[in-house]
Structure prediction request, 276 residues.
Amino acid sequence: MFQDRRIHLKKPNEIALMRAAGLVVGRTLEVLRAAVKPGVTTADLDALAEEHIRASGATPSFKGYHGYPASICTSVNDEVVHAIPSPDRTLREGDLVSIDCGAIVDGWHGDAAITVAVGEVTPDLQELTRTCEEAMWRGIAAMRRDGRLSDVSAAVETYVRGRGDYGIVEDYVGHGIGTQMHQPPNVPNVGRPGKGPRLVPGLAIAIEPMITLGSNQTDVLDDDWTVVTRDGAYAAHVEHTVALTDKGPWVLTALDGGAAKLAELGVPAGSLAESK
Prediction:
């Protein structure tokens, strides 16, 4: 029996709508990844994102959310999450930029993020980004039927801790997702396995590790949105929206549903066909 009645388990037709929204997000992020280069402003990326989302028949999730003024978040270097795009923020060679994007299709949300190197970056930043992304996939792979939610958290933390002395941000976490961008349950990026709600088909969550080259302590800037590392260390942030099906996790914001990466990890990817 599922233990938290606040958690809305999705039906197959609802997951299908979330997949439609997830594909808009995934394709938009690929457009933005290709656009990242020295000299581009974060406002340029925001305009491109909104154009692509709306041309796809979707609505940006972020624009107007609690007053947020843009369609994406563009967090550069020591900015962890929620930084507002600006025409005054020009990307430079060696920067890292995290791009967080959400879209709504027929009332259902998709949410994902990527961290992209601007030109050539140092080896430690390459490894920071790789570690963050791999940790996310380890969390996704741990999303197995009849497991517990903290299995996901533990998988993320275990991988990061095994790769070096990174800070794992704890003040900001993954989340449930559906007809709202943020729903129960919260999905921390640290924890012991075997705790929390049971993982059952129909559960849809956003898994999003945030790690730094230094401390995990953060502050919020005066704009009341931008989260930065307290010690100025660079950060990486990645995210996918995932629904658990009878067969396994279906990565709704990955263009292939997560099939290739999950196969590499020895985990079958789910799909709507396997959901009841």
Summary: The CA atoms of residues 1 and 260 lie 32 Å apart. The first helix runs from residue 12 to 35. The helical segments are 12-35, 42-55, 123-141, 149-163, 259-264. The radius of gyration is 17 Å.
